[in-house]
Queue: 4 jobs
Job 1
Amino acid sequence: MPTLTIPGLIDVHVHLRQPGGEHKEDYASGTAAALAGGVTCVLDMPNTTPPTTTAERLEAKQGLARTNARCDVGVFVGASIDNADEIAAAAPHACALKIYVNSTFGPLRVDNWELLDRHVANWPATKMIVAHAEGDVLDRVLEIAQRHAKPIHIAHVATRQEIEMIVAAKERGQRVTCEVTPHHLVLTRDDLPRLGPFGDVRPRLAGPDDRAALWQHLDYVDCIATDHAPHSIDEKHSDNVPPGLPGLETTLPLMLTAVDEGRLTLERLIALTRTNPERIFNLPPQPDTTVEVEIGPRYRLSNHGLQTKCGWTPFAELEVAGRVVKTVLRGRTVFDGERVLAEPGSGRVLFAAE
Ligand code: NCD
Ligand code: ZN
């Protein structure tokens, strides 16, 4: 079967759970999942325990990544209710600032407009601000970013209303970029009876018309990002279900299936998963970094044989037509189609102090 070679993917939205959530994932397991999925660089979110809300915590987290990560990792800092006047000092060493305007898993939340305004005003325009802003909240966030002339990236756009707001802002000339997740491109709330707690995620799975709107406006989408948010099977079966779905190992199979079915071009897939993320977040190049993929033969995704510690995928049993055959990072084979060969500590930590 002929294979194709594409650049290693950059996933700008993952939760690798270290420190504090190592029973769900850690840098070693999460970056193994990344390499098995053809992802060679990840940007890791700040809603850990404790959250990454100070320069000291950022440095400590980068130390953990340095000894454990198998692919390259950039680390986010998070906006909190009490760091608006200090966190900008950490910008040189962070990949970006994450602002949670809507509530989700973890305590990080900027819950009033004055505080959000202060965070956006203080953060330097040389690094990105990433906002979790759903529905009507998005309009207000776009207005604040525009007023401060700051570029802003909108995480996991999930509905027709949201993508249409972003299309309008782009057409007005605003410096706004956005990402969509594979789960919002593939699943809808119609899948919830089947998935139960394994379909519980923020933003929630939306309706078929929302999903159609994401595909329809794909030219206005800048990145495909997983929002890889692993939780254990026990936690998902508990009375207090945490929202979040793993995604690092299933993105290429799903998106290559869209290529196979003519809904996405390979060229556009490369822009969404490599060149746009690299440009938007000003990431260093990764020379000789490629993924060999196979498109065509159909098989079913499975909960078995995954590298992620959580051991499940919401896409189990889905038929796909794409597979990662090999991942090469800086000239070295780091995944051979079955095994991850890169050892913990072989990845680079981006923007870290020497
Ligand atoms: C994320 C998590 O579990 O950390 N959950 C989710 O449903 N997406 C948090 C987040 O990214 O909002
Ligand atoms: Zn997330």
Job 2
Amino acid sequence: MERKIIIAIDGYSSCGKSTLAKQLAEKLGYFYIDSGAMYRAVTYYLMQNHIDRTNEREVASALKNIHIHFQYNKVNNRNETYLNGEMVEDAIRTLEVSNAVSPVSAIPAVRDFLVEQQKHMGNRRGLVMDGRDIGTVVFPDAELKLFMTANKDIRANRRWLELKEKGMNLPLAEIVKNLESRDHEDTNRAYNPLRKAPDAIELDNSFLTQEEQLNVVLHTIRELVV
Ligand code: DC
């Protein structure tokens, strides 16, 4: 029996982290956790409850009222995010939330609150988690760490298509602006910024198909687990 490992995937916004993570989880029979969905759910809660997101104390005190869990929906074959019992998988993907999430995720109390829950999810091996600090902070002992990058225009185009398929037709320029500002904020925040872990494998998928990318990573995993 092959041993089960933790796969930590980090990288810039819209690099295809979640696509790869989902494919790996499916192939390997692992759990998949989208840590970005947790930061989005916190942001969504703060927006819905009109909490001043620039007031760190108010945000920190709201956290005790936030419960996030994931549930697999077999009808549409996706892991859905629940906030206090309500399914918010689509509500947390709007551009409004995307534009507000980076400053919220820079607040140390928010990060500590979510990182603690994420670490617990790794108690059982056989997990793929994607985000910005998974290989550096959440699972510094992950057996496989990937750091994904891709050309910015290619990323923006992919994001535009993804949103269009969900019925959200947004100007490409707005998406480029959102990606640029999130990359900047995620890389430059003081607490747990986006960094490539020294032992992470860098994967630039600008010119790789999803299938090619999956095969490269599966090959690496096979070498690791035997
Ligand atoms: O992966 P995503 O684009 O859905 O993530 C949304 C935001 O959450 C991203 O701009 C930064 C933040 N995030 C983070 O700070 N740390 C993580 N581990 C995951 C996401």
Job 3
Amino acid sequence: MYNKGMLKDNCLTGKNFIITGGGSGLGKSMSSYLLELGANVIIASRNEDKLSKTVNELTSLCKNNEISYSVCDVKKSEDINIVIEDAFKKYKNIDGLVNNAAGNFISPTERLSPNAFAAIIDIVLKGTCNFSLLYGKQCISRKQKGKILNIIATYSYTGSGYVVPSAAAKGGVLSLTRSLAAEWAKYRIYSNAIAPGPFPTKGAWDRLFPKPISMFFDMEKRLPLKRYGNHQELANLSAFLLSDFSDYINGEVITIDGGEWISKAGQFNMLNKVPEKLWSLISKATRKKK
Ligand code: HXC
Ligand code: NAP
């Protein structure tokens, strides 16, 4: 496994990015790497304590660049407006927006209240729509190139029980990604997505794999590569998609899951479990008899 940075030193110097949910988990890892590459980063989410701790910690990675935060609930378009306006005032140009903030929990769907469903849709789908809209308007009026990068999930393609609000919302974000790519290419606003497989974070693990669940399922053993994703692997991909190196990639979703979803989809992939010796017998049994 390669777990170091992959892009050229300082290749993002002079670039500015907004990352929602950048105070923890994958958002924090993506922010760290953008900073290491010389970019300025604004992280935005609800919890000011978390944001300010992350800013203090990641400032050590900065040379002539900086990290700052904006308190914002992505469910509120007025909060988003403030983040976007302040960011463009501060830097004149925002080269990319990462819609990474999310909310999720596991539950049988019939146990959910309408408010529980709405809580997830409002963060994941509406938050991403509104951030993309207000960011895009600024880029268009200023005639500036921009890159939108949405963090989705592989169940955006397949759907999934027990996380139905999130699956519905992430599916919507996938459609938003492709739709905006088609419409806004004329403004040089790119729209791409990353669909990560399992990358351990406290936020996701506390909510999706709490004790009673983690005692029954060993997620890591179920994966084709028998390992989780490493945060730097995702950070490398996100930095590439936000950089000028990816300027001919638009409307694309890149899965980074070690083959997880595809391995669960193919009907015969369970034959992995057949021991090598048995294949000779199977071969005899399945060949045309002379
Ligand atoms: C059922 C629940 C619930 C649960 C909350 N609700 N938790 N229902 N099961 N576990 C219901 C509440 O009862 C309420 O409905 C409604 O949801 C809103 O709850 P609040 O607590 O008021 O919402 P809010 O404060 O906005 O918090 C949002 C949250 C919370 C999503 C519920 O968990 C959160 O802040 N999450 C942010 C971080 C996060 O989730 N990270 C994981 C991302 S992982 P009522 O009717 O009672 O008012 C991810 C990875 C996917 O997306 C792929 C992995 C492989
Ligand atoms: P995480 O640490 O819980 O990240 C979620 C972030 O969203 C938090 O920093 C949280 O910050 C922010 N957030 C939540 N609600 C918000 C709101 N209403 N307004 C603003 N910010 C809000 O979990 P993660 O695992 O890193 O997830 C990051 C992204 O990766 C998510 O989009 C998730 O769906 C996706 N993903 C993760 C995995 C995985 O295995 N980890 C797999 C597939 C996809 P505040 O609490 O400060 O608001």
Job 4
Amino acid sequence: MKILVVGAGGREHALVWKLAQSAEVICAPGNAGIAQEVPCFAVNPMESDRVVALAKTENVDLVVVGPEDPLVNGLADALRAAGIATFGPGRDGAQIEASKAFSKELMAAASVPTPEFRVFTEAEPAKAYARQRFADGFPVVVKASGNALGKGVVVCDTEFEAEDAIRRMLVDRVFGDAGREIIIEDRLNGFEFSILSIVGDHNFVSLPIARDHKRIGDGNVGPNTGGMGAFSPVASVPAEMVKDAEDRLVAPILAALRERGIPFRGTLFSGIMTHNGQPFCLEYNARFGDPETQPLMMRLGAGFPEALYAAATGEVVPEIEVLDRAAVGVVVASAGYPGEVVKGIPMEIAPAPEGSKVFHAGTKMQLGRLTTNGGRVVCAVGTGQSVEEARACAYRAADTVNFVGAYRRSDIAAE
Ligand code: GLY
């Protein structure tokens, strides 16, 4: 099987690495790390026609679309219209991620447990609602409805923080159009975990659960990021809770999409928080999670390309082998992330320790030299028989990555 992976991040590097174990893989556009492993093509994923042309010229059997923006832009629709098997939902299905307002309304229609919420486009009523929730004893989370690279979620401790977040999104438009509409939802206090489900027309198969660390600082302080690290398995979430979440959060939302005539062949990412012993859905995404995918790919055995191909072609999705080991991913980021960062800083990566893999995210070759090219630069993944072993291995791997200003959390997977 020949597979084209679309994207340029750490998630795509991990997908390429896993798929290339049993398939021929090419990537567009890729990054410096991916280019060391498979042929990469300088095609912008937002230019659907060019991706279709590449898939045809290279005669691929399957296209796997990594990031959300090309999906929202209709890349999967264009590929399918050209008769190319594609793993990733069309523009309609991607709305589940592109519009949190759509997603929350779908959750309500499908009776999916989710925190109490309201949708706003005007600042003053939004502020009044937030003040009232705090006065009633319910702290809130303010979320941009559109895609803000994981940074558009503000968990508020006080009504003043909520008012500030509302102003920044609706008035100052710090997230541009992504913050034209906002969600204010009650803040739950529990354990978070993510389920990534491979969805086909007839069934879905979930990967082992993972947990990411969204805040920039140790101890979960500071602003949200795209994710500073992730690990799997998650011992604090029992198997019954995972089953419950699949039954009450994953299956009903897929049924609701089908009822609305929205096909979904791709990954449904369910971001979940436990509350009073029950799973609640915080968000859905229409793609593999980043950085969850990096450790998860190192836990998978045989059957991954076959599962994606089956989902893409309308066949029953087969089970995927899960290896009996833990994996932990530690993101190494540029100084200043999740704010402005300087790109183009020379970097070096020494050989990774056994059982680990450094997945590149924001990296680039410039004048023959490896340099940084973004906020999250690499995700160093370690494996082991336990999360503790995997964690030690991941930090040894992260130590091999050197550039000026390199930053990482020191408490990834330290539950
Ligand atoms: N790690 C969360 C996400 O991929 O959106």
